[in-house]
Amino acid sequence: MLTVCFLLFFAMVAVCLITGWSVAWALLGGVVLFWIFGLRQGFTHRQLWAMAWTRCKKSLIVVRIIVLIGVITGVWRCGGTIASCIVWGVGLVTPPLFLLLAFLLCAAFSYVLGTSYGVSSTLGVILMALARSGGVDPAVAAGVVLSGVYFGDRCSPASSAASLVAAVTDTDLYRNVRQMLRTGLLPTLLTLGLYLFLSLRHPLERMDGAVLEALEGRFALSWWTLLPAAVMFLLPLCRVPIHWTIMASAAAAAVLAVALQGFTPGEVLRSAWSGYHPQDGALAAVLSGGGITSMAVSYVIVALTGLYSGILEGTGALRPLSGRAEALAKRTGRFPAMIVVSTLCAAALCNQAVTSMMGAQLLEGAYDDREELAMDIENSGILIAGLIPWSIACSIPLAMLGAGNGAILYAFLLWLIPACYLLTKRKFYHQSA
Length: 433
Hints:
Shape: globular
Mean pLDDT: 83
Strand content: under 5%
Largest sheet: none
Distance between the termini: 32 Å
Low-confidence stretches: 427-433
Order of helices and strands: HHHHHHHHHHHHHHHHHHHHHHH
């Protein structure tokens, strides 16, 4: 019956993708399907709810971060932070190399901050505003940003994903980081070459002077407006938790919006809730968006993912798959098996963290080297989750960037790391005992 449930679930996902409906409907259908599966296995409604709520409650931590990110994307706009970055960025960015520089900036920031969400919602939003105002295809620009933010999300010492993998495999975080940088060198160089080519094909055109004039006329642009961005960059270096960092940055932007930009406290609160939506058409094309409500679908996706992954975990539905996964590793090799397992887990569970844990759990017996296990997870599940359109690892960053699923095709680093590692891993054909 479990197989039937998964087939129906994937069919619902396919319908949503084809029709353009939100994948939240498919996830809701998944909760119903796996709930019925649990009942057929002999569990009561009370037991299933306890299982579902246990996982969902943990996912609420992610929801809190997403809510704060929604706030910061709204108040950064009315505080003048994004306007300043656009006006000064046009002068600093070399138009023919815009996409290449965007990738390098996102990669550097994500390595320092260790968060894909934090960089997507701040630097990513700014770069997307520059791309739209400069005539660059938003899908291409969003794919570049997605590659950049996952560079650090995968291999930064500050990344929660890297810490999780080190914990579930019982390996040393910093040794893993060194190995990730080594195995990521070739795909990163190839990604740079591809983005150089795309940069020349999609240069940042000169922004319409009317847009720049509108930005300069509406906002008081000074170095103070960069304070919220500086807070987001500096506080994580001092080991300040990301939620406090976002709150401090949002507070600084709110003060600037009132004291420097002339907004009322009520207008700032509305921007935090529903986003900033200027009346001027030129400004609206560049700055509209942000706010808590802009991330509404993301909240639902995270909650639903937590509910049905809790049911699958609590009922032990995936436990019998461990033997099959290990048998697959003996036939094809460890890393190919990890790719298959990670892809299925990311598609079914829609969560990067759960994908990493399930990969370790299902294939642990196939490995005699814990560091190899850690590296195989880092080079598969952590990145593959960012390529599944309905996974929160992909859907939430794209929602922040205001981009569609077409951006996934241009997230070259996420494709190249698994492919290059598959071809270059020395132990690839060594079978486990």
